[in-house]
Amino acid sequence: MAELAAAHDLTLSGARPTLPRYLAQLWGRRHFVTAYATARMHAQYSQASLGQVWHLMTPLLNAAVYYFIFGIVMHAERGVPNYITFLITGVFVWDFIGSCINASTRAVQSNLGLVRALHFPRASLPLSTVVQLFQQLLITMGALIILLLVFGQTPALSWVLALPTLVLMAVFCAGCAMVMARVGAKSPDVSQLMPFILRTWMYASGVMWSIDQMLTTDHLPHWVSMALKLNPAAVYIDLMRFSLIDSYTAHQLPHHVWLVALGWALLAGVGGFVFFWKAEEEYGRG
């Protein structure tokens, strides 16, 4: 049968294509990815009275809660200039990173009907999740700019640096999303565990407190200090704060931070894509 199929140029249905061909197929489905992401974004809060306003309300309410607990009760704002803008920026950036990783664990599993009925590059599913959340992020970034102006920040040329930060962060999240989509497709229970992992990661990313300030006051093991400094979420949060907040922009950001951000984006983006592609034949089975 194999010889007969080869003689007539027949291939196994659902077989994994080569990596270049898979990239070409995925590019050919780019309109599906964006349309599916947009439809899901509009449907997300379709039953809520405030509708799409919740895209803005959720990170703002989180920031208000964190400000009360960490800023007022625990005095995390001590030594951190412009703490409110510091906190809001961190919350908005983390909300995107954490949501991408958490939602992607169910990207394949929650679309099994689509996966089993149609043939298309399965990477479209986690990527559409990231596109959906990135569209929401662009909306919240508009609100963030308004809040920064309200709390006394002045527009500066450094604000342009927010654009490459967003791009690098999106590539990093896309790679992580594809990794977690494959893991979630194989082990659905991981979606129940991820909120606890992400909560721990958030606390280690300097969303509510300054990592630099803690490193100068606490005597931590060298490996812990390096892990905190190289934490990808913390790197992207710091880059966004450096771009938008006056008190950060006034200090010279080490050049290696951009290299670290680029390195994480390439490692996660390329590595995550190859990792997901390797299991292309397995999605939807069982």
Topology:
Blueprint (H helix, E strand, L loop, with lengths): L1 H6 L11 H10 L1 H15 L9 H20 L9 H22 L7 H6 L6 H27 L11 H25 L3 H14 L7 H7 L4 H9 L1 H13 L1 H4 L6 H22 L9
Helix pairs in contact: 3-7, 4-5, 5-7, 5-8, 5-9, 5-12, 7-8, 8-12, 8-14, 12-14
What descriptive keywords fit this protein?
about 290 residues, mainly alpha, globular, single chain, 14 helices
Describe the structure.
- The protein has one domain.
- It has helices at residues 2-7, 19-28, 30-44, 54-73, 83-104, 112-117, 124-150, 162-186, 190-203, 211-217, 222-230, 232-244, 246-249, 256-277.
- It is built from 14 helices and no strands.
- The protein has 286 residues and is mainly alpha-helical.
Number of strands: 0
Which percent band covers the strand fraction? under 5%
Number of helices: 14
What is the ordering of alpha helices and beta strands?
Answer: HHHHHHHHHHHHHH
Structural class: mainly alpha
Distance between the termini: 25 Å
Helix content: 55-70%
Write down the overall geometry: globular
The tally of domains stands at 1
The biggest sheet amounts to: none
Low-confidence stretches: none
On the 0 to 100 scale, the average pLDDT is: 84
User: What is Rg?
Assistant: 21 Å
